[in-house]
Design brief:
Elements (H helix, E strand, L loop, with lengths): L3 H7 L3 H25 L2 H7 L2 E6 L5 H15 L2 E6 L5 H10 L8 E5 L3 H6 L20 H6 L1 E2 L2 E2 L2 E13 H21 L22 H10 L8 E4 L5 H4 L8 E2 L10 E2 L3 H12 L13 H9 L3 E7 L2 H10 L7 E4 L13 E9 L6 H13 L5 H5 L2 E2 L9 H11 L2 E2 L9 H13 L4 H17 L18 E5 L4 E5 L9
Parallel strand pairs: 1-2, 1-3, 7-10, 12-14
Antiparallel strand pairs: 3-12, 4-5, 6-10, 6-11, 6-12, 6-13, 8-9, 15-16
Helix pairs in contact: 17-18
Length: 497
């Protein structure tokens, strides 16, 4: 199963969306000027105590129902909570907002990549400076950038999703212990006193890789437990798990993902990183047609894999599996590995945020609910839903969540620009072609030309870059049929500009 939460947001035609937004803007201004006058005062009075909250993820149902009841008990403001299909979700919000007979969603939960569309349609509004998003002690800059559009905060972060390195902690300890026992035995055989000449002691923490090269070297230097079938597996078919390879070297809209002048996709570092990605196919022969995130996480749960790239939902899944006796290992979470000492990485993130509807007649009450959900109710978000709060302090309660928060701070938010709505699909296609053997330099150049052409409205041609001539990985030979890697570390060369 693909990463559907991302896929649903990837498709759409950008040009058509722009046209729709323009129409919605006109309707918005007409409606806001006439609605209050047309609606009888008695109807307004009957709705005075109720605001409407919309969301799309059923995992939030119990949490929102419980917390909005607490909110009502504390404020006398009733909240009607409604689960809505994620298919054409924003269109449904708009339709209800325009329908005089429907209950307008006063506040709703939306992923950050849709905020431009929502704001231009009048379905989001600039938050007042009293809103919690302005509190830099409450949110890291990455969370705030995710909800920033055209210099304005148009939503408030609620929870996030990003990726990290997941590893089998039990296996690393076993491997370290075995290496130390072997060292002791060797010392005894040579006539040395192990207590007087203990030699180098290997710890499990030392086996947590800082780079992909470290994983390859680890595969050569240490024997693995009998149950292990793979050193590293990840969903190479999904851009969410692949993005970190080039995330530190490309820009689509700048830090906030909303600046059409900041497009940098095709450069020497991004090409170099993608060439390494292609080279990894010979070491980790992952069939894109037979593997996906769920199957790979299941392999990890069964103890078949030492390392994988996982999203933040893995914490709850593995903890529940352990409670049910379906996962008998300790696990750890680490920052995404760099490629090597020269080429670094950066992951992608999606932030789900609370949005106050520009059509709402109860923006003040909706703002009070936003304040409550972020400042007070967010403490129960993970325990009740498995979703990680964007509030910085909340991660301190869980060591694994804290690592995901570190990755979140350094992540790239999905951009908000309508014109680049197809970028993630096209980037995923680019990665698939490169994994299958096509030229990384050519594919990235074509992708950059396509995106820049969409933004400029006229053809854009990139000057071809000289292909980086670098040895980015150690000299590695794969022993066919053994499942083992023979790795000889070599001096890495710096990419040539």
């Amino acid at each position: 199963m693909r990463h559907d939460r991302i896929k649903k947001r990837m498709f759409g035609v950008a040009a058509a969306l722009v046209a729709v937004v323009l129409v919605l803007l006109a309707v918005f201004w007409y409606r806001t000027s006439t609605r209050s006058a047309d609606r009888p005062m008695t109807e307004l009075a009957n709705r005075k105590e109720t605001i409407h909250l919309w969301y799309t993820d059923d995992a939030l149902t119990d949490y929102l129902s419980s917390k909005t009841l607490d909110f009502y008990n504390n404020t006398d403001i009733r909240v009607d909570v409604k689960l809505v299909s994620g298919v054409e979700y924003l269109e449904a919000v708009n339709a209800a907002s325009l329908d005089e007979e429907a209950d307008t969603p006063d506040i709703y939960i939306l992923s950050n990549d849709s905020l431009e569309k929502a704001y231009l349609a009048g379905l989001a509004t600039k938050l007042p400076e009293s809103a919690p998003v302005y509190d830099d002690q409450l949110f890291h800059q990455a969370a705030r950038n995710a909800v920033l559009y055209d210099g304005k905060y148009v939503a408030c972060p609620l929870y996030f999703e990003t990726s990290a390195l997941l590893y089998n902690k039990t296996y690393l300890q076993q491997i370290a212990d075995e290496a130390n026992r072997a060292g002791t035995d060797e010392a005894q055989e040579s006539g040395e006193n192990p207590d007087e000449s203990p030699g180098q002691t290997v710890t499990a923490d030392q086996l947590i890789p800082a780079s992909v090269v470290d994983i390859l070297t680890f595969a050569d230097q240490y024997s693995t437990p009998e149950n292990v079938e793979y050193f590293l597996r990840w969903d190479v078919s999904d851009i969410f798990y692949n993005y970190f390879f080039i995330g530190n070297y490309i820009s689509v809209g700048g830090a906030a993902g909303d600046d059409k002048t900041l497009i940098d996709i095709y450069n020497t570092e991004s090409v170099s990183s993608l060439k390494v990605y292609q080279e990894l196919n010979q070491f980790f022969s992952i069939d894109t047609k037979e593997t996906n995130y769920d199957s790979i996480l299941q392999e990890f749960q069964e103890g078949k894999t030492i390392y994988t790239i996982a999203t933040s939902d893995c914490i709850k899944k593995l903890d529940e599996a352990a409670k049910n006796g379906e996962f008998g290992y300790e696990y750890g979470v680490a920052k995404l590995p760099d490629i090597n000492q020269e080429l670094t990485t950066k992951g992608m993130s999606v932030t789900n945020a609370l949005v106050i509807n520009g059509y709402s007649e109860y923006k003040e009450s909706a703002g009070r609910l936003m304040e409550y959900l972020v400042r007070e109710a967010s403490a129960d978000l993970y325990p009740m839903t498995g979703k990680l709060s964007s509030v910085a302090q909340r991660a301190e309660d869980n060591e694994h969540a804290a690592v995901f928060m570190e990755n979140y701070q350094e992540s790239v938010p999905m951009p908000k620009m309508l014109e680049t709505g197809n970028f993630w699909v096209e980037l995923e296609i680019c990665f698939a072609k490169v994994w299958g053997g096509e030229d990384a330099n050519t594919q990235l150049r074509h992708l950059s030309e396509q995106i820049k052409t969409q933004l400029a409205g006229e053809p854009v041609t990139e000057e071809p870059l000289e292909d980086p001539q670098v040895e980015l990985l150690p000299a590695v030979e794969y022993e066919e049929g053994t499942g083992e890697l023979d790795v000889t570390p070599e001096t890495q060369q710096t990419p040539q500009s």
